[in-house]
Specification:
This protein is α+β, with helices and mostly antiparallel strands. It has helices spanning 53-68, 73-79, 89-108, 119-130, 135-154, 166-169, 193-230, 235-251, 269-276, 280-289, 292-298, 327-344, 350-354, 407-419, 429-432, 446-466, 487-497, 506-516, 531-556, 566-575, 588-596, 647-665, 669-692, 696-699, and strands spanning 29-31, 45-47, 255-259, 265-267, 300-301, 312-313, 316-317, 375-377, 380-381, 397-398, 403-405, 561-562, 602-606, 611-615, 643-646.
Length: 700
């Protein structure tokens, strides 16, 4: 039995190096931070202020038992493979909150002991509690309420709460009807191409073109602040201050300013101090003497840092200078941009990116023949990580096989490494808390990163508007906020569909498919829901089904088809089911892998090559890897035995040829010659289709 001075978390559950405060049993707030080693997890607490007094003692004991105990193996066996003897701190917090909701309901009915929560009470409570919940949420709720009985059984002094009837009879009859809604990653809508295209362009631009300027400006800002704070009042400093500011005041010019959070401006005192040599106190007195506060509000001006700007957008410098006041904002956006690239172009879950540390992606040694090696990312993964006893491991574990990083990701990691100390988390909350750098725990959390992504988008759209780049504005996504959780599904969506011209790095998507198709190289291949592989399978299967449906619709409208694989394509189009929408159930991942394994009858649209690929591995000239179930669409070759074309493809090829001719008319002679040759080849391809195309009926 715990006593009032007992620790909330027993020392056996606290990992070495965890120095978070450990509360006492008698306190009104119990910190669970001693159990948290995952840098991407918020520090959570258990609050007792809303627990009814008559039930407080019993609820505290049950909760303390949950925090420090383990569910029995027999109980876990009954609940299935996903059950854990010890859950995460978030699970504990949510379970505790569920128990308190029951306690308040019992208290309203003047039930003052858990022993009086009988089977009849459970049957009265559960319909009201589950009303309006989805089936998945309702099942979790029942599981958490069952845990109250299970942990009460483990308690040193059991309260005697009855076993819930759904744990005896089976939970299905107590749950609402299934609504067909998807759960997990497949329930997340991919980002619209008009959102992701410009967003990725600007994120990579920040990393590759603006990073040096921003980091230099941030360093100069820090130097100026250090210089200003070290200044002491002197006659020379005062004279320089007067010489700098009085002409601006008398001429009615703008004054160096910084913007306050509420939108007001005040004099940039540290900037002025560092430039003139006057002490901050002298600047304050001068401001009061000449009533500069009111003048700055009327005439706010810039405070340019004396660092060269080298980054460009097209042919022009991206700005004339970086302002003392905007350096901190640009540093936050630089960190956000690098995080976006890492989140999107690796396939990692958000928590894995949050767990990356400086040094996680060393430069590779060249191969024996001198060719450069691939960059590999060593990372922790956290999902479903348990120890040998089935206990949740907050710190996660290192992936058995590292991620392969493409060039934009490597450059993003290098930028983040310049923002944090050696060995520190790349997204360290303390070092990305700019300009304050307060001692926050772990990495930037999901909520903070989501807010920063939205702020980055707002900045991007202001810049695109001011620079006259309407095609680089990040559109509003039809499915709501961007959010970290949507990048992973979106990567799979674009690898599968590659909408030409709308997304930056289209060829890189092909390389990403090559990397991610190496299923045996990743432990995720055998995990529940298959990690990024299963997400990619789902999107590829949906894309292939859409291609088959579109081909079926075109043939029904009277279009003809041509190509060596035309007969196979007609058969595939007739037998492939149509899938409505992008949201799919959890069980579809396994079906998707089976669907894609049907060699020779899965159709892949390739709008850039003006064809459909009826992918048959042995026929493919794009040199797919052994065991690959999809073509290398970026390496499509003429003369391949898998090609199929429709009248629509031929028409679009001729339209593209006309566009190329227009480009050729405005190009130098040699370039124009090559362009016209490409246009002629497209027209020949379209003519060949017209000469050989047949109806679907003729091919069946």
């Amino acid at each position: 039995m715990p006593v009032p001075d007992s620790l909330v978390v027993l020392s056996q559950w606290i990992s070495p190096g965890n120095t978070h405060y450990n509360g006492r049993y008698s306190e009104a707030v119990w910190p669970l931070a001693p159990l948290i080693d995952n840098p991407g997890t918020r520090l959570v607490k258990i609050h007792w202020k809303r627990c009814p007094a008559p039930l407080l003692g019993q609820m505290k004991l049950a909760t303390w038992t949950m925090v420090n105990g383990r569910l029995r193996a027999t109980h876990l066996k009954e609940r299935g493979a996903s059950a854990r003897s010890r859950g995460s701190t978030l699970d504990m917090r949510d379970t505790h909150n569920e128990w308190l909701q029951l306690a308040r309901w019992l208290h309203k009915r003047r039930i003052s002991s858990l022993a009086d929560c009988t089977e009849e009470v459970w049957r009265s409570y559960i319909p009201k509690r589950l009303a309006g919940l989805s089936r998945d949420h309702a099942e979790k709720t029942c599981g958490r309420l069952t845990d109250l009985w299970a942990f009460d059984q483990l308690s040193a002094q059991s309260a005697g709460i009855a076993r819930p009837p759904w744990d005896i009879e089976g939970v299905d009859d107590f749950l609402p009807q299934a609504d067909g809604a998807a759960q997990g990653e497949n329930s997340t809508e991919p980002l619209d191409p008009k959102v992701l295209g410009p967003l990725l362009v600007w994120a990579i631009r920040f990393v590759e073109d603006f990073a040096d300027d921003i980091l230099a400006a941030w360093a100069e800002r820090g130097r100026l602040i250090t210089v200003a704070k070290a200044k002491r009042a002197s006659p020379a400093g005062l004279a320089a201050l007067e010489e700098f500011l009085l002409p601006l005041v008398r001429a009615g010019d703008a004054l160096p300013s910084i913007e306050q959070p509420v939108g007001q401006h005040k004099l940039a005192r540290l900037y002025v101090s560092a430039l003139t040599g006057a002490s901050p106190t002298q600047v304050d007195r001068f401001r009061a003497q000449h009533q500069l506060s009111a003048l700055v509000t009327e005439r706010p001006g810039r405070s340019p840092l004396q660092v060269p700007v080298t980054g460009r957008i097209g042919e022009n410098l991206w700005r004339e200078f970086i302002d003392f006041d905007e350096a901190a904002e640009l540093m936050r956006h630089l960190g956000t941009a690098a995080a976006i690239v890492c989140l999107y172009l690796t396939g990692m879950r958000p928590q894995e990116v949050q767990g990356l540390r400086s040094g996680c992606c060393p430069d590779p040694e060249p191969a024996a023949d001198g060719t450069p090696g691939r960059h590999l990312i060593r990372s922790q993964h956290f999902k479903n990580v348990t120890d040998g006893d089935g206990n949740h491991v907050s710190a996660g574990e290192e992936r058995a096989v590292p991620w392969t990083a493409i060039a934009p990701v490597v450059r993003s990691i290098r930028v983040l490494e310049r923002m944090v100390p050696i060995g520190e988390l790349l997204l360290s909350s303390a070092h990305h808390d700019i300009p304050y750098q307060r001692n926050y725990h772990g990495a930037l959390k999901n909520s903070a990163l989501n807010e920063r992504i939205e702020a980055f988008v707002a900045w991007v759209n202001r810049q695109a508007g001011s620079l006259g780049l309407p095609d680089q504005v990040v559109a509003e996504d039809p499915h709501g906020a961007i959010g970290m959780s949507r990048f992973r599904r979106t990567l799979a969506w674009h690898i599968a569909r590659r909408p030409g011209g709308l997304i930056a790095l289209a060829v890189q998507y092909g390389h990403m498919r090559t990397v991610l198709n190496a299923r045996t190289s990743s432990a995720y291949g055998s995990r529940s829901r298959g990690g990024i592989h299963s997400v990619l399978d789902v999107e590829t299967a949906l894309a292939a089904a859409d291609t088959a449906a579109h081909l079926r619709d075109r043939m029904a409208a009277g279009e003809k088809v041509s190509g060596p694989a035309a007969r196979r394509a007609v058969t595939a189009a007739a037998t492939t089911p149509r899938f409505e929408g992008r949201i799919v159930p959890k069980t579809f991942a396994k079906k998707a892998a089976t669907f894609l394994a049907r060699d020779g009858v899965v159709l892949y649209d390739n709008p850039d090559a003006f064809l459909i690929c009826a992918f048959k591995h042995d026929n493919a000239l794009c040199e797919p890897d052994p065991g690959a179930t999809a073509p290398r669409q970026y390496a499509c070759q003429q003369g391949c035995g898998n090609t199929v074309r429709t009248d629509t493809h031929a028409r679009r090829a001729r339209q593209r040829a006309d566009e190329i001719d227009q480009l050729a008319a405005a190009s130098p002679k040699k370039v124009a010659k090559r362009l016209r040759r490409n246009a002629d080849n497209l027209r020949k391809m379209a003519d060949n289709h017209d000469d050989t195309a047949q109806t679907a009926e003729a091919l069946t």
